Amino acid sequence: xxxxxxxxxxxxxxxxxxxxxxxxxxxxxxxxxxxxxxxxxxxxxxxxxxxxxxxxxxxxxxxxxxxxxxxxxxxxxxxxxxxxxxxxxxxxxxxxxxxxxxxxxxxxxxxxxxxxxxxxxxxxxxxxxxxxxxxxxxxxxxxxxxxxxxxxxxxxxxxxxxxxxxxxxxxxxxxxxxxxxxxxxxxxxxxxxxxxxxxxxxxxxxxxxxxxxxxxxxxxxxxxxxxxxxxxxxxxxxxxxxxxxxxxxxxxxxxxxxxxxxxxxxxxxxxxxxxxxxxxxxxxxxxxxxxxxxxxxxxxxxxxxxxxxxxxxxxxxxxxxxxxxxxxxxxxxxxxxxxxxxxxxxxxxxxxxxxxxxxxxxxxxxxxxxxxxxxxxxxxxxxxxxxxxxxxxxxxxxxxxxxxxxxxxxxxxxxxxxxxxxxxxxxxxxxxxxxxxxxxxxxxxxxxxxxxxxxxxxxxxxxxxxxxxxxxxxxxxxxxxxxxxxxxxxxxxxxxx
Amino acid sequence: xxxxxxxxxxxxxxxxxxxxxxxxxxxxxxxxxxxxxxxxxxxxxxxxxxxxxxxxxxxxxxxxxxxxxxxxxxxxxxxxxxxxxxxxxxxxxxxxxxxxxxxxxxxxxxxxxxxxxxxxxxxxxxxxxxxxxxxxxxxxxxxxxxxxxxxxxxxxxxxxxxxxxxxxxxxxxxxxxxxxxxxxxxxxxxxxxxxxxxxxxxxxxxxxxxxxxxxxxxxxxxxxxxxxxxxxxxxxxxxxxxxxxxxxxxxxxxxxxxxxxxxxxxxxxxxxxxxxxxxxxxxxxxxxxxxxxxxxxxxxxxxxxxxxxxxx
Lengths: 497, 312
Fold this sequence. Notes:
By secondary structure, chain A is an alpha/beta fold. Helices cover about 55% and strands about 10% of the residues of chain A. In chain A, helix 1 crosses helix 19 and helix 10 runs parallel beside helix 12 (about 350-360). The longest helix of chain A is centred in the N-terminal third of the chain and has 35 residues, at about 35-70. The model of chain B is unreliable at about 305-310 (pLDDT under 50).
């Protein structure tokens, strides 16, 4: 009953309805009850100041861990675990689902695997192209020629178009690739529980210590099959060539992910990540009909293990490409679409809650807590920038002369200004931290870029207004009206703008 | 629980405590409430917002020096009358009584503090009887009636130069007026109008030396430069004339006045002359009325008669 179409639709409508209710009721209050609206905004501003301070502290802590573990010799750490936990028993299966990405994107990703300090004879690489994209046949041959012999196994597959139950999504391709790899593992008689699978975006370049770090955490985790392993995604591949707008957004995205890594009870897999292959098979792979496959796979495992499943943060980086277009407006459009796709993760809410309803084995407290976290994070995302940038001035503008003569009318802009100043203060911390994760400046790029990288933070308020809340509200509204999103592969380029 | 998670938990609960502990203070402050520990009740207060030009003035409230400097707000004031004094070194002090009402902001946001020793300097280098400031061009014109001369300097009084001499009229002129293009100047008494060319381009006026237009029968009330800077509008006690600004000109009467002391105003942007006059009403009595004469239209006929183009 709980999986009935009506319940599913209700759960799809709920997040958007809550977000719109918050926004519209605040606008109505600003017109008809400006004092009450002002009080709510002041409470929200104060909450946001404390939240920003708290989250920035978490970011500093996560950043410190990242720096501490950056050059750690993980293989040595694995060796130190002794013969009971022999790291040499572990195989790494690396899957690259590819759609239209060309050699300029794929070659560096495979090259990074080759340069990693983990033994290549323990690595199986699957590059899974979409069969419908014909030019990829040639690219597949070239890559096989260049990288085919460098690993224990190298598999090129072509995901057939239109398999039953599938949509044209990355998750469908990854699932196809994992099933092909499963056959290979069976052929080579490698037990699934000794295999860690990493599903990487085509542009993902791993840090050289990534697999050592992953193996160490897998071996030291009390329940290694009941965990996903999440590295810190950074967008360093083309950071020196990307326009300021894209750079700010992506650096902020990396930092948000670092903050999340400190909140382990809420942590959900995002983008490129790793997990036990045994678990992947047990939960029937990635979803083949949902866009946010990276997080849904976590929820599938969470439900499969009755809530006893976690995401372990790995303080090592995987570097990806920033998304940008050939001019500012195209960059804004590309970024907007990418953020909207990320915000489409709200589709997890009906997925998770409907399954929670049917699962009596997960403790009620956990179910309520996780559902609330999921909903709260998406609703905060959809409304916070609108409240601070659009609704906060409304009581003053629409509240009339009387409101302006009241202490709250006088103090409201001051408190809102304080929030803005405080946010700018925390931006300073973000600027300093963003410098420390920069890759080495490539030849041909002027040192003046360092100055630009500081000055560009001045456009943060502008970026917040455009990309702060609107993509999330857009995604929730689409889900609300059952206008389901199609997968939109982010346009990525290594060209110089 | 790892060390980081313990620190995080402490930070989280600390943040929650700060939020809930700080919120009542912030709300009572912003809403203008003050907690009275004697009565254990919240009292509605008001506030005074202070802004001065220049900023940084010390604030005295009922004679007591506060730590705030302007711009600032004096919050949580119980309703009543307050004496606010503002002091800034080298500026005149300012003081005012302010009524503070509950749940209201009393604004003193347009206070200008004037300097004790204003920064004044003498600009003229010669004696003068009258001056005009031409701000857009950064020029000062001076008239010295003792030696019948017109001078010009820049706006700081420098680069003084004699630009014209004029013929005196008796009795002394009651008004001086520079043309809109700053090329000519007129002056007049009741029966004579003098015109001075201020630039060499206009020296043709001097062909008619002395450039004095006589109005022997009329008493001149007012004279205006027409917008073409060439004609004059002359309002006398009997009529309104338009004439060229030269001696040999023939005046054209465009309106005959009934009232002897009409007042007039000329708007060069619309070429309209506003004037008062008495006219006979339907009841047979005379009443003072205000009229507008659109000169641009009315002038065409005699401009053609005089061989002039409109607004020449």
